[in-house]
Amino acid sequence: MESITKSKLNSEQINMMTRQAFGDKTKPEIITELTDGYFNTAYMLTLTNGCKTVLKVSPPEDVTVMSYEKNIMETEVYVLNKIKALTDVPIPKVFYYDQSGQIIKNDFFFMEFVDGVPLNKLRSELTEEQYREISSELGGIMQKIHSIEGSYFGHISQDDKKFDTWDQAFLCMIKDLLADAIDAGVILPYDYNKIYNMIYEKREVLNAVKMPSLIHKDLWDGNIFVDPKTFKITGILDCERAVYGDALLDPVCGFLLNNKAFMKSYKGTILLDKEEEIRAVLYQIYLYLIMVIECSYRKYPDENQFKWSSARLQEALVDLMKL
C-alpha cells in the first residue's frame, strides 16, 4: 500500500543496518520490499548465513502522523518482547532494535521472518470449516494476549497518556483523534463536540472495566499468518498500535464480533450483555474515526477507505444514540 509514512531505503543503507545488527560478516543477499503494510516500511532479507529476517523502518521524521501513532515502533518492540516472554503465542522474535539515528534518522528493528500466508489472502480458498478452525484457534491466542495485565490504562510509549482508569484513557484517545481531525480539516458526520459528548455520556460503562489487558488493536485478517497446508496460525504481526485497556476492544478492531467460532472460543458465547453492547459501539466509533481520519494523514491514492469508513462511522453514531 502506498503511503507517505513509508521510508524508502537504498541497498547501501540496508547493508549498513544489517552489519550493525548482525555483525560485519553478515550481509543481505536478497532484499525484497514487503508492500502490504499501511504505515511502516518493511523489507524481507535473506542473509549470507541463510537466515531470513524482516527489517521494519519507522516513518520519516518530517511526516506528520496521528497522535496515537507517535513512538509506535517502540510500542511494537515492547509488545513483541512481552508476548514472547510471557506466552507461547506465535509471535516473531526481535533480533535488534535501533533508536540511535546513526545510520538513518528513523527507528528500525530486525525481527524473525514468519512463514505462512496472511489470512486475508488465503480466505477465498478456505472452506467454512477450515475458517472456523482458524477462528477458534485465534480466540485462544487472543485469550493468552489478554492475560497479560498492565499497571495502567492507555498508551504504552506515551507517558503522558497513561491513566488509572479506562474511561480516562479512552476519552483521551477520542480527544486525540478529534484534535487530529481538526488539524487535518477532516469532515465528520457530526460536529466534533457532539461526537465527544455522545461518548462522554456513556463513560460509566467504560469505568466498569477494571483490568488493563494488553490489547493488540489491529488483529484483522492481514495480520494473522496461516500455514496454507495445515491451516494453523503461524504468526501474529503488527502489534504497534497496542494499548492496555478493555479486552473487548480487540474483537471490535479485528472485525470479529460476528465471527461465531472466534467468539465461542474467546468468550464462550456470541452474546454481549447490555454494557458490553454499549462499549462495543463506542469502540466501533473509535475504530471508524481512525479509519476516516488517517486517510488525510496517509494521502491514500483513492477514496475507497474514506467513503466506506465514513458510512460505517455514521451508522455507529446512530446506533449509539439508540442505546
Core attributes:
Aminoglycoside 3'-phosphotransferase, Chain: A, domain 2, globular, Phosphorylase Kinase, domain 1, alpha+beta, 2 domains, 323 residues, 12 strands
Strand-helix topology:
Layout: H1 11-22, E1 28-34, E2 41-47, E3 52-57, H2 72-86, E4 94-98, E5 108-112, E6 117-118, H3 119-122, H4 128-146, E7 153-155, E8 162-163, H5 166-184, H6 192-200, H7 203-207, E9 213-215, E10 224-226, E11 233-236, E12 243-245, H8 249-253, H9 260-267, H10 274-298, H11 304-322
Antiparallel strand pairs: 1-2, 2-3, 3-5, 4-5, 6-10, 7-8, 7-12, 9-12, 10-11
Provide structural commentary.
- By secondary structure, the protein is α+β, with helices and mostly antiparallel strands.
- The protein has 2 domains: 11-112, Phosphorylase Kinase, domain 1 (2-Layer Sandwich); 117-322, Aminoglycoside phosphotransferase (APH), C-terminal lobe (Aminoglycoside 3'-phosphotransferase, Chain: A, domain 2), CATH 3.90.1200.
- It has 11 helices and 12 strands.
- It has helices at residues 11-22, 72-86, 119-122, 128-146, 166-184, 192-200, 203-207, 249-253, 260-267, 274-298, 304-322, and strands spanning 28-34, 41-47, 52-57, 94-98, 108-112, 117-118, 153-155, 162-163, 213-215, 224-226, 233-236, 243-245.
- β2 (41-47) and β3 (52-57) form a beta hairpin.
- α10 packs antiparallel against α11 (304-322).
- The longest helix is centred in the last third of the chain and has 25 residues, at 274-298.
- The protein is globular, with a radius of gyration of 20 Å.
- The chain starts with 10 loop residues before the first helix and ends with a helix.
